[in-house]
């Protein structure tokens, strides 16, 4: 989508008000409009830095993660290959409901209507009240191949693994095994949190029911 100001609000509206699961492009925006989701001009999303990254990627005929182009390198004093642009959130409420949401611009200079793992339920985003909620970031193709978020939930369900063990198995072994780059944030029905990643860094934070924050 190109005009939905807060895509996760749009996604939530699809979840709550549509008989369908996955909408894209103009149809998704028509649905959003019908459900009073805020739409903005594409200029709202413009940043000079990201524009320059796109021009570089086009010039080099490359598709890349938003952190890995030469523009990123020239702006930073140290390599920032491990910073992904996705924003994700997972939560457990007092009633035991688990929820996950993930928002991304995808890859820089992606083409042909490429869709990443982020909106694919089970790949980059998944929640099930009986297991866990998971939100992923990284090179989407690897997460789609392994159906990462659902696999973590399945390992808890079928192998009765802990959240940490399931995350380690899927992210640190299976994903790493195909040289996949990225990670996830996850929470289970007891409120345990795991945030594994195969890169050298992933910005992350958590807050518990007592208000204790970790960043
Ligand atoms: N997972 C996203 C994608 O492949 C990219 C990201 O995490 O920033 O579209």
Question: What attributes characterize this protein structure?
Answer:
four-stranded antiparallel sheet, alpha+beta, 215 residues, two-stranded antiparallel sheet, binds aspartic acid
Structure write-up:
The radius of gyration is 18 Å and the shape is globular. The protein is built from seven helices and eight strands. A hairpin with a 5-residue loop joins strand 1 (87-92) and strand 2. The protein is an alpha+beta fold. The protein has helices at 7-17, 25-34, 48-59, 70-75, 140-146, 148-159, 163-177, and strands at 87-92, 98-103, 125-127, 132-138, 182-188, 193-194, 206-207, 213-214. The strands form three sheets. Strands 3-4-5-6 form a four-stranded antiparallel sheet. A two-stranded antiparallel ribbon has the order 1-2. A two-stranded antiparallel sheet has the order 7-8. Helices cover 34% and strands 16% of the residues. Bound molecules: aspartic acid. Aspartic acid is lined by residues 65, 84-86, 104, 106-107, 116-118, 124, 137-140.
Query: Which class best fits the helix and strand makeup?
Result: alpha+beta
Please describe the biggest sheet, giving its number of strands, its sense, and whether it closes into a barrel. 4 strands, antiparallel
The helix content is 25-40%
The SSE order reads HHHHEEEEHHHEEEE
Distance between the termini: 31 Å
Quick check: average pLDDT? 90
Q: Give a count of the beta strands, DSSP E runs of length 2 or more.
A: 8
Radius of gyration: 18 Å
% residues in beta strands: 15-25%
Number of helices: 7
Strands of the biggest beta sheet: in what spatial order?
3-4-5-6
Low-confidence stretches: 72-84
Bound ligands, each once: aspartic acid
Quaternary status of these chains?
single chain
Please tell me what the overall shape is.
globular
């Amino acid at each position: 989508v190109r005009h939905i100001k807060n895509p996760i609000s749009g996604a939530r509206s699809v979840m709550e008000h549509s008989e369908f699961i996955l909408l894209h492009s103009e149809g998704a925006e028509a649905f959003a409009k019908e459900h009073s989701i805020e739409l903005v001009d594409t200029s709202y999303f413009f940043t000079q830095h990201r524009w320059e990254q796109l021009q570089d990627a086009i010039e080099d005929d490359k598709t890349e993660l938003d952190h890995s182009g030469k523009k990123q390198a020239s702006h930073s004093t140290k390599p920032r290959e491990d910073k992904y642009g996705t924003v994700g959130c997972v939560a457990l409420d007092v009633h035991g409901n688990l929820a996950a949401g993930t928002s991304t611009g995808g890859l820089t200079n992606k083409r042909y209507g490429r869709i990443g793992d982020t909106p694919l339920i089970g790949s980059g985003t998944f929640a099930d009240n009986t297991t866990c909620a998971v939100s992923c970031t990284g090179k989407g193709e690897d997460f789609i191949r392994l159906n990462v978020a659902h696999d973590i939930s399945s390992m808890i369900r079928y192998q009765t693994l802990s959240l940490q063990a399931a995350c380690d198995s899927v992210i640190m072994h299976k994903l790493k095994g195909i040289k996949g780059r990225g990670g996830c944030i996850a929470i289970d029905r007891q409120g345990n949190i795991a945030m594994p990643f195969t890169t050298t860094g992933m910005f992350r934070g958590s807050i518990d029911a007592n208000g204790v924050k970790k960043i």
